Automatic annotation (TrEMBL):
The keyword Cytoplasm does not apply. Residues 32-209 form the KANL3/Tex30 alpha/beta hydrolase-like domain. This is Alpha/beta family hydrolase. The keyword Hydrolase applies. GO terms for molecular function: hydrolase activity. Pfam families: Abhydrolase_11. Keywords: Hydrolase. It comes from the Bacteria. It comes from Streptomyces ehimensis. Gene3D superfamilies: alpha/beta hydrolase.
Length: 213
């Protein structure tokens, strides 16, 4: 018998427009994992969906957050300042269940979490596909943004991510490497790991890490 995860959608007003929170509710939840999306996609990203499917079965409510620009149907993300402003404004909705909240996201969403988590009182930070640098521009490092989060941080990175491979990250971050994964954690058909196995690397690593939060 498959356990059905309760899903609800909540629109939250922010100064830059309405954000949308997709709640995947865990029975007897012990914490909330809030995840923002990247600049090139939305909450339908394979890693976000995998976590939203797997973690509620282990006592973690997952909140996938759509930034206002995506809700409004725009194709281009606004400046980081606007992303941070919206995230701060919707944070009370994420803390409303009265549980510890782990802030996170993929790519640009991970950057938002790193920049704001400490001031908002997050319990920890989950950075999926953190864009350590623009592709081909390692000298344009954003490592300070990641290491400056000031909270326990888990990085999960594709082994082929052009925005920063796991071995490029600074000491102390120790990313979980997803074999053959690119920036979206997609793996080639010829890889020694299937797409489902790659996603399981992510969900297993995040699940184990959250048990210590």
């Amino acid at each position: 018998m498959t356990t059905k995860i309760a899903e609800t959608v909540q629109d939250v007003p922010t100064p830059t427009g309405d954000a949308r929170v997709h709640w995947y509710l865990a029975p007897d939840a012990r914490l909330v994992l809030a995840l923002g999306h990247g600049a090139g996609g939305g909450v339908e990203a394979r890693d976000l969906r995998a976590l939203a499917t797997a973690l509620p079965l282990d006592g973690v409510t997952v909140a996938l957050v759509e930034q206002p620009w995506r809700v409004a149907g725009k194709r281009v993300a606004p400046a980081p300042k606007a992303l941070d402003e919206a995230w701060r404004a919707l944070w009370p909705a994420l803390t409303a269940p009265g549980l510890p909240v782990v802030a996170g996201g993929r790519s640009a969403g991970a950057r938002v979490a790193c920049r704001t988590a400490a001031e908002l009182g997050a319990a920890a930070v989950l950075a999926l596909s953190f864009p350590l640098h623009p592709p081909g521009r390692p000298e344009k490092s954003r490592a300070d943004e990641l290491t400056g989060a000031g909270l326990p941080t888990l990085v999960v990175q594709g082994a082929r991510d052009p925005f920063g491979r796991p071995e490029e990250f600074p000491p102390g971050t120790e990313p979980v490497a997803v074999p053959a994964g690119d920036h979206g954690f997609a793996v080639p058909k010829k890889a020694d790991i299937t797409q489902m196995e790659a996603l399981a690397v992510i969900t297993d690593a995040v699940g184990m890490w959250l048990k210590a939060i």
